Amino acid sequence: MEFSSIHISIWFIFIQPLFLLFLFSSASSSRLAGNEVDRLSLLAFKAEIVTDTLGILSSWNESLHFCRWPGITCGRRHQRVTVLELRSSGMAGHLSPHIGNLSFLRALNLQNNSFSHTIPPEIGRLFRLERLRLHNNSFSGHIPFNISRCSNLQYLHLYRNTLSGELPTEIASLSKLRVLNLGRNNFHGKIPPSFGNLSSLQRLSVQKNNLHGGIPNSLGQLKSLCGICCGNTRLCGGIPHFRLPKCISKQSKRGLSPKLNLIISVSCGVVGLVLVLLLALLYRSRKARALKSTSGSSLGVSLLKLSYGDLLKATDGFSASNMIGSGSFGSVYKGVLNQHEERNVAVKVLNLQTSRASKSFISECEALKSIRHRNLVKLLTACSSIDFQGNDFKALVYEFMVNGSLDEWLHISAQGVDMPANLPKNLNLTQRVNIAIDVACALDYLHNRSHMPIVHCDIKPSNILLDSDMTACVGDFGLARYLRDASCPSALHESSSNVIKGTIGYTPPEYGMGGEVSTYGDVYSYGILLLEMLTGKRPTYEMFNGGLDLHNFVMMALPERVGEICDPLLVQIEESSSSTNPRRNRGNHAPNDRRKRVVECLTSIARVGVACSVAMPRERKDMSNVVAELSLIRDVLIGTRMPREYL
Fold first, then answer.
1. Which residue from 242, 276, 249 is spatially nearest to 262, judged by alpha carbons?
2. Alpha-carbon torsion (233, 237, 242, 244), positive or negative
3. Farthest-apart Cα atoms in the chain, separation
């Protein structure tokens, strides 16, 4: 007993403190080692970024602990990275496989950027990950099969990328998954029946993919499922019997028919089934009436049946007082359709005596019959008939845009155009940026998001129309071309080396040397348009000669003298606004914060315009990147994001 007491005393006096010190040291070393792994992994992530528009990653250096780097959130206890938040940051590059070393990561949000290449399989190491948002990027390849190891994943957003392959059945093991958004990719095959094991799933989106087959009956077992979006696929067949779900509100989804254009509603109980049947009958009835009323229209989708006489009456005999524009292939008139509750329309009458006018009519019909976007002018119907003298007559009827064209607003003093009395006579910077974003979104849709890449071929201010809310819509598709591939020339319909391909000043240089149309040509025209919006000068302005053009004029002013070459009216409006409207200065920044933001934005807009209008086609920006960069510029301008110098 005495011997044991001595040993116990020695333990408490000497050995126990050393043992506790050893345990503490081991724990501290482990924590420090984990922190270093996170730091090095973030630096490896940074190394794969080739474009950092806002300069956010410039702060990722030794001057700050990595937990204080922009976009990083760490847990309080272990100081390990739990959130990587870099959405809408204007970044481009690859996603580093070292991302898999951030073992405490719970949320990875990289949406609305330009990340490309594949999603690294190392992402499967993130067993604590709950939210993975990679939508609106350019990721390609397959979904990593081992993503199923992210057992805590609840939200998986891969919408609007270029991912391909079949949907991995391994996803079905993610029992906590609530939202699975895989729309607007290039997936093929069928929806795996094993998805019926996603017991927590509330929303499934697979629209705009090359999927075929039907919706698996196993999905009908999902009690939490509130909605399925599967439009613009090749899915067909019946709709599973759903056990109709815990959600109370009605959820809409695309029905399954060969063209996927039946809209139905799913709600709870027997009422939902009755509603589905009623909507199906209503759809068939409306479709039959629409087909009967569509004559003389090459679109085959119009609900308006208009004759030559209707349009003659609507435009007061195509009177000069109703003419609102003219172009290479015809004239545009304002019209009022009395038989349709005095609906204002714009009627484009083709001059069939002009060479290629008929082909322009066909091109515009074909381009607009299968595309829908908020920033594309809405074609209501087409009329191909005979006038009262027995001559061929062709016209296109559009939704009327009350605020006219962008050209009228940019050069209003020179044109003497009468604008609505309650509107300002010039566009401020925020309006110009919003219009630039609208046009960029339209071109991004045409080039990258439509069923087949479309080149507009005639982007210029007079073809940009403004509605009552000053939302911009791209119009006049008379020169539009379908392409086999967005990055390759070679139009489907005909070689374009010997046809009109745009307007002088906006036409890219390669077209003048016999090059075929491509999306790069639209990007060039857009760049010139953007510089015209910035400077107020047309590309055909008399000072541009002898090697000096609008592109070089702005490029030589970067970066210090951009303010000197901007539209004087724009500068005047911004200065007046800053001095008379202090509410536009947000936050706790200096009084001249608005002026600094304006200068930053003007410089950034000039850089985007110059980058889009460089001489070499493949050096020009992609329109998806333009949308992201201009959106960031707008955020800085309105004060929701600080300029680079504040980051």
1. 276
2. positive
3. 129
What is the pTM for the complete model shown? 0.54
- How many domains does the chain divide into? 3
- Residue owning tokens 């990275």: 81
Q: b/e for 121-141, b at 16 or more Cβ within 10 A?
A: bbbbbbebbbbbbbbbbbbee
Q: What is the pLDDT of residue 431?
A: 93
- Residue 529 is predicted with a pLDDT of 97
Residue 629 in domain? yes
- Write the burial class of residue 9 (CB in 10 Å: 0-12 exposed, 13-18 middle, 19+ buried): exposed
Tell whether 348 is in a known binding site: yes
User: Which of 137, 147, 60 is CA-nearest to residue 93?
Assistant: 137
Query: Sign of dihedral through CA atoms 64, 68, 69, 72?
Result: positive
Same domain, 298 and 370: yes
Beta-strand ranges (E) seen in 242-306 are 251-254, 263-266
Q: Which of 444, 458, 522, 593 is catalytic?
A: 458
252: closest CA among 213, 216, 223, 226? 226
> Are 445 and 553 in the same domain?
yes
Give the model's pLDDT for residue 290. 42
Determine the 3-state secondary structure of 612 from DSSP. Answer: helix
Q: Can you name the residues that pair with 141 across neighbouring β-strands?
A: 163
Q: Are 520 and 617 in contact (CB under 8 A)?
A: yes
DSSP code string of 450-517: SSS-EE-S---GGGEEE-TT--EEE---TT-EEBSSTTS--BSS---TTS--S-TTTS-HHHHTTPPP
**Per-residue pLDDT at 242:** 65
Amino acid present at 12: F
User: 3-state class of 352 per DSSP?
Assistant: coil
Residues 155-165 have pLDDT tens digits of: 999 999 999 99
* Whole-number Å distance between alpha carbons of 261 and 278: 16
For 397, what's the count of Cα atoms within 13 Å in the CB-facing half-sphere? Answer: 27
Low-confidence ranges of the chain (pLDDT < 70): 1-34, 237-238, 241-243, 245-259, 261-304, 328, 339-341, 355, 367, 412-425, 484-500, 575, 577-592, 640-647
Q: Is residue 312 part of a domain?
A: yes
pLDDT confidence of residue 581: 56
Q: Give me the DSSP letters along 547-602.
A: T--HHHHHHTTTTTTHHHHS-HHHHHHHHHHHHH-GGGS-TTS-TTHHHHHHHHHH
- Measure the CA–CA gap between 264 and 279, rounded to whole angstroms: 6
Structure tokens at 93: 């590059």
End position of a domain, from candidates 215, 244, 276: 276
For the question of residue 458 being annotated catalytic, the response is yes
**Residue 144 to residue 153: CA distance in whole angstroms:** 14
Give the per-residue pLDDT at 341: 64
- Which structural domain, as residue segments, surrounds residue 301? 294-400
**Does any domain span residue 137?**
yes
Sign (positive or negative) of CA dihedral 248, 249, 252, 253 = negative
In a domain, 286, yes or no: no
The DSSP H or E segment spanning 543 is none
CB atoms within 10 A of CB 443: 27
On whether both 299 and 439 belong to a single domain, the answer is no
